[in-house]
Amino acid sequence: MNSIAVLPDGYTVRSPEPADAEALFAMLAAYNEGVVGFADTTLEEVAYCIDRPGFEPATDGWLVLAADGRPAGYATTLGLGDRQLLDVEVTSQYPEVAGWLVDRTLQRAAEMGRERGHAEVTAAAAPYDEWFERHEDVPIFDWSQLTLLEIDGRVVAIRECNDKYVETDNCGHIGMLGVLEEFRGRGLATFLLRDAFTDHAASGRAGTILHVDTNNPTPALDLYLSVGMTPTVIFDGWRRVLSLN
After folding, report:
1. Mean per-residue pLDDT, 85-114
2. Within 74-232, where are the H helices?
3. End-to-end Cα separation, the chain, in angstroms
4. What Rg do the C-alpha atoms of the chain give, in angstroms?
5. Do 213 and 179 touch, CB atoms closer than 8 A?
6. For residues 157 and 183, is the Cβ–Cβ distance under 8 A?
7. Helix/strand/coil percent split, the chain, to 5
8. 3-state secondary structure of 159
9. Percent of residues, the chain, with pLDDT higher than 90
10. Is the dihedral of CA 42, 43, 49, 53 positive or negative?
């Protein structure tokens, strides 16, 4: 990989700390409001992400400060499982800072891959123990929000909700919805969606939010439209596979 860009004069960088949560929340909320029209995060969520399981701020987080000490950029590289699934997040309204952070996060992703002996960094599922611990520590999730459907003792469908959008939008959130392929077409996903709508309404929520990949090989978007959901915000997702040889 080429050497990373140079951080412009006037900026400093250090690892994020729990005490940075409020200042980081203010920066992230302001940035998101300018891009999508709303904060799209909470102080509680920002504080959790700085101190979440599996995240090492000293090596995997970068807080860029302007000359006046205010946050000017923030980025993290989070390695999951065997470090082939790498979650990279970069936020800055300043292109030169964002460019430096992108380079730094990708460099760290390559380092993680090499540490595990991978030829390239790509997607992989996380082990159950890590998945369990991650959910156990998330403040916006409770195990009562995980629903499984069984047929003859076999789990065939899952729905995972959380409180990600309760504070910002007074809405419930469906973080994951899935049905085993051989059991699709039986209305199980529709049932789980309508059941979530009912639960959220009974809790006083104004609605239900979920995100969908429109390139999904299943007709997921059509399903959500069929139960009365409507598109509100469209995001572009970017992925880069890093060859480590």
Report:
1. 88
2. 95-115, 128-137, 166-169, 188-202, 220-226
3. 10
4. 20
5. no
6. yes
7. 40, 25, 40
8. strand
9. 45
10. negative
Average pLDDT score over residue span 102-123: 79
Candidates 95, 57, 93; CA nearest to 77 is: 57
Round to whole Å and give the CA distance between 142 and 100. 37
Tokens 């409507």 found at: 230
Q: In what order do the strands lie in the sheet with 85-91?
A: 12-14, 61-65, 71-80, 85-91
Quote the CA–CA distance of 122 and 83 in Å, as a whole number: 9
Which pair of structure tokens corresponds to residue 69? 């000490």
What count of residues does the chain have?
Answer: 245
Helices 21-36 and 43-50 cross at an angle (nearest 10°) of 120
| DSSP bridge pairs for 209 | 173
Q: Is the pLDDT of residue 121 over 70?
A: no
Nearest Cα to Cα of residue 32 among 103, 105, 92, 87: 92
